[in-house]
């Protein structure tokens, strides 16, 4: 059982939290207003193992912190989180340009690397950014588990992240060091472009092995 | 039957040409020196339907031109190709940084878009860049066809490109307009990083549909 704080209770945060609560983990939504209707709804979906608190309180009690906010508030959320020393920080963000036409950062850096710079004492893993919340709720594709790619520089943190992805039903795949966020964030852009470009949300990436 | 000129007879060019010659297409390797041993070997692998000529001659007789060179000679190759009016130009390049540590261009443009600017009268499709030559030789993964993502702004050119991918055994997937090369080139970097980061070359991406 892992104690998890999820910063943000939007579609992605709620999908992750609901799945982990059902899998037996203890989930606290870390939000500015724990009484907001969407937060209460996420807590209700999670049952006995889900709760909500302000960001610093929820984070203080957690071993794993999940950053599931829009990109434009990610830095402020980290600043509100308090002490992140040695905590595992799962970065689910995508640095979408304001008009959603592309990414705002990339090539020579990534949101994942920026998050790591903003939270230098945390162990950052980039994960849960390359697919939609619908796939986080159900990653099964006709008997095949969708792949969840992740990357980071801390082996133990990556192992925990991979297990948390498997708990949701994903096939977890370690893509390498955190720098690979420079490829996983464009992969998210590919998913978004295709999902909203005619394919719909029921698409997912799979890594095939021979 | 499509007349195809392949600029470059390296691993990627030879894998594509051999597969297409076997599928019944007419393949001409477009190279600076048609007598070079690797070119003669590629021609021999292709059998009766494969030949080699200098770049301009091979391109002149083709409806489809395939750019399968290293990135640092791609612009010069296009300049040597002669008249590309209305030809379909399949861009297989990846703009790898000289030390292979990442991509040299991206985020706000892509190799695909740069190739289109260098060959403004051609109909450019980005394709055959997101996987290794071994998968081009055999895209079958235990009964599942690896996906070949492609993108471009000309519907007819994309249809031809998709058919040529299917002729090799791939599951062709249209990712959208040429701008999506900004995501397909990082996807290549993900494949390269994983293949040389411990997974080996027998990995491939698949788009799952529910």
Give a written overview of the molecule:
- The structure is a homodimer of 210-residue chains.
- By secondary structure, chain A is of the alpha/beta class.
- The first copy, chain A, contains 8 helices and 11 strands.
- In chain A, helix 1 packs parallel to helix 2.
- At the A-B interface, helix 8 and strand 11 of A face helix 8 and strand 11 of B.
- Strand 11 of chain A pairs antiparallel with strand 11 of chain B.
Using CB atoms under 8 Å apart, which protein chain pair has the greatest interface? A-B, 36 and 36 residues
Tally of helical runs of chain A: 8
- Average pLDDT level of chain A: 97
* CA(first)-CA(last) distance of chain A: 34 Å
- The multimeric state of the shown protein is homodimer
Question: How would you sum up the global shape of chain A?
Answer: globular
Q: State the helicity of chain A in percent bands.
A: 25-40%
Any chance you could write out the topology, listing elements then pairs?
2 copies of one chain form a homodimer.
Chain A lengths: L2 E5 L3 H12 L3 E5 L6 H10 L3 E4 L1 H6 L3 E4 L6 H7 L7 E4 L19 H8 L4 E4 L6 H5 L2 E2 L2 E2 L1 E6 L2 H13 L3 E6 L4 H19 L3 E7 L1
Parallel strand pairs in A: 1-2, 1-4, 2-3, 4-5, 5-6, 9-10
Antiparallel strand pairs in A: 6-9, 7-8
Tell me briefly what this model is.
Two copies of one chain form a homodimer. With 210 residues, the first copy, chain A, is α/β, with parallel strands linked by helices.
Jot down its keywords.
alpha/beta, 8 helices, homodimer, 210 residues, two-stranded antiparallel ribbon
């Amino acid at each position: 059982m892992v104690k998890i704080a999820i910063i943000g209770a939007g579609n992605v945060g709620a999908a992750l939290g609901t799945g982990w609560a059902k899998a037996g983990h203890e989930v606290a939504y870390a939000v500015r207003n724990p009484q907001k209707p969407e937060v209460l709804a996420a807590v209700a979906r999670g049952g006995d193992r889900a709760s909500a608190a302000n960001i610093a309180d929820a984070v203080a009690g957690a071993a794993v912190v999940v950053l599931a906010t829009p990109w434009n508030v990610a830095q402020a959320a980290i600043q509100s989180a308090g002490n992140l020393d040695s905590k595992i920080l799962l970065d689910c963000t995508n640095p979408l340009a304001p008009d959603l036409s592309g990414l705002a950062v990339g090539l020579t850096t990534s949101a994942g690397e920026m998050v790591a710079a903003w939270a230098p004492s945390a162990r950052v893993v980039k994960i849960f950014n390359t697919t939609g919340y619908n796939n986080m709720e159900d990653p099964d594709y006709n008997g095949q588990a969708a792949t969840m790619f992740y990357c980071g520089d801390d082996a133990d943190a990556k192992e925990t992240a991979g297990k948390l992805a498997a708990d949701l039903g994903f096939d977890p795949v370690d893509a390498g060091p955190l720098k690979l966020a420079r490829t996983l964030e464009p992969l998210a852009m590919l998913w978004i472009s295709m999902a909203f470009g005619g394919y719909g949300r029921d698409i997912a990436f799979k890594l095939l092995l021979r």
